[in-house]
Every structure is written in structure tokens, then in C-alpha cells.
Design brief:
The complex is a heterodimer. Chain A is an all-alpha fold. Chain A has helices at 4-11, 13-45, 50-69. Classes of the chains: A mainly alpha, B alpha+beta. The A-B interface holds A 20, 23-24, 27-28, 30-31, 34-35, 37-38, 41-50, 53-54, 56-57, 60-61, 63-64, 67-68, 70-71, 74, 77 and B 27-29, 31-33, 35-36, 38-40, 42-43, 45-47, 49-50, 52-54, 57-58, 109, 146-147, 171-173.
Chain lengths: 94, 173
């Protein structure tokens, strides 16, 4: 079985960092906008402005779907299991 | 005896195989999943507002309601009243001039504190957070309230004061 991905991950640990940071920052951005929309919807719903409440709900829902969909791209954790490491036998490496 | 066993792991540790550090650690993956969950919760609460607005539309006040005899409220005074014994929404009736009456909901639009009419400045005050409304129109003059006070129309007929639903100009945006 190819161990290309594993070697890549071990050779470039920063890549995992960047992806994770990007995902978390995007999620925080979405949540901040959702808080803003929710606050607006609460204020406007009290004023019988139903259209605004519905529009903010659709926007908030799209952002929730986006932030859950982003989880697909969470990198797998790097496992440090020494058992599966390829062993180099002394006979092959004279 | 204690010195002898110091190198060995105490036997109670076998009963608690997870280190406390590992149990309390939140990885970035878990944090990202939590943010996804939080985002869904915000969308749900926004949906709850929509459902609530659809299921419980604001009811308009039906018909005219007698409040008080006109001669019982002097000029510059405020009267607090309820409609039909319903004390969920308290109202205030203000006699600004001899023939100038105003009626508003008493709940401040900021955090529903009870507002009161101040004759000395001819304004309505919310004492909780220093919010001020116009006694004539209910418009916000100062402070944190985001909306004007909802207003009722006042009708004086044969010395009796009645209120009814107005055009709701304060509610439409």
C-alpha cells in the first residue's frame, strides 16, 4: 500500500495547520455574521417585519450549512504510532 | 516501604487509565466541530423567530375601549391603564393640553421597563437606561430604545376618553 500521503503529511506538517486555521477562521466569520443576523431578526420581528426575519433565517441557514460542510475538509489527525512505521532491514541497507 | 515502591506505578492508576490532561484537552478538530454545531444552533434560533412570527401574529386591538372620564385627568398628568383587565400590556394616557390626549404602551422598546411622563420636560422617560421619547409622537429622542413607543388613538366623546387602534405608523418600518 502506498504511504505517499503519510510521508507528505509528515514532511509538511504546516499544511495541516493552515487548513485547520482556515476552517476555524471561516467558521468564526460565519458565526459572527449569524449573531448579527439573529440580533437584527429579533429587533425586526418585534416590529412585525416578517420579511426580514425570513431573509435572515435563510442567510443564517446557508451559513450553518457552509460551516458544517467545511468540516469535510478537516485534516485527519497525525498519528504517531511507531508500530506501522516502515522498518529498514539491515540486509537491504548495507 | 514507601521508598521501595516509589519506582512502581501505584495500583490505583490502573483504575483510571485516562490521564486528566488528555481528558480535558480540546483539539482543534473538536473545536471546529463545536463551531459547526454552534452555527447550526444559531440558524435554528433564527428559524424559531420565523415560526413564532407565523404562528403568533401580533393581534390588533379590536374596537374602542373606555379608559376614564376626561375630567378625572388634569392637564399635564399621566394615567396608567389596562384594556379589558388584560395587564399583559400596560398603557399610559397623557393629557398634554386641554384637548390633546396621547396613549402609548408603557413598555419601553428597549428592555420593557415601565416608562413615565415627565411634565417638567414634556417628554416620556424610561428611568432604567435613561431613554427618552417624545410625548407627542412616541419617537425616540435619546438613549438606547431602538423603536418608538407603540401608540393608540385617543377619542374623547361626551366627556369620556376611549382608545382604539390607530394607523400603527409607529410599528411599520
Amino acid at each position: 500500500m502506498s504511504n505517499f500521503r503519510k510521508s507528505q503529511n509528515e514532511a509538511h506538517p504546516n499544511k495541516t495547520n493552515t487548513i485547520l486555521t482556515g476552517i476555524i477562521l471561516l467558521q468564526i466569520l460565519f458565526i459572527s455574521m449569524q449573531i448579527w443576523l439573529l440580533f437584527g431578526a429579533l429587533n425586526n420581528a418585534l416590529e412585525e417585519n416578517f420579511g426580514f426575519a425570513l431573509t435572515t433565517f435563510i442567510g443564517s441557514l446557508l451559513m450553518a450549512i457552509a460551516s458544517i460542510w467545511l468540516l469535510r475538509y478537516l485534516p485527519e489527525p497525525l498519528r504517531k504510532d511507531s508500530k506501522n512505521k516502515p522498518m529498514v532491514s539491515p540486509s537491504r541497507n548495507p | 516501604m514507601a521508598k521501595k515502591d516509589s519506582g512502581k506505578e501505584p495500583s490505583w492508576k490502573a483504575d483510571f487509565p485516562i490521564e486528566s490532561k488528555r481528558a480535558t484537552h480540546v483539539s482543534r478538530r473538536e473545536f471546529a466541530k463545536f463551531l459547526g454545531l454552534l452555527s447550526g444552533a444559531f440558524a435554528l434560533s433564527n428559524g424559531f423567530i420565523v415560526i413564532r412570527a407565523m404562528a403568533f401574529p401580533d393581534e390588533r386591538l379590536e374596537g374602542e375601549h373606555f379608559v376614564v372620564d376626561a375630567d378625572k385627568v388634569p392637564v399635564g398628568e399621566m394615567l396608567q391603564f389596562e384594556i379589558g383587565g388584560e395587564d399583559l400590556i400596560p398603557y399610559i394616557l397623557i393629557r398634554l393640553e386641554e384637548n390633546k390626549w396621547r396613549a402609548f404602551e408603557q413598555k419601553c422598546t428597549h428592555l420593557t421597563c415601565a416608562v413615565r411622563y415627565r411634565e417638567d420636560v414634556n417628554k416620556i422617560e424610561c428611568p432604567c437606561h435613561n431613554g427618552w421619547f417624545s410625548a407627542d409622537t412616541g419617537e425616540v429622542l435619546q438613549g438606547p430604545p431602538p423603536r418608538p413607543l407603540p401608540q393608540l388613538e385617543v377619542v374623547v366623546r361626551e366627556g369620556k376618553v376611549y382608545v382604539r387602534e390607530g394607523e400603527r405608523e409607529n410599528r411599520a418600518v
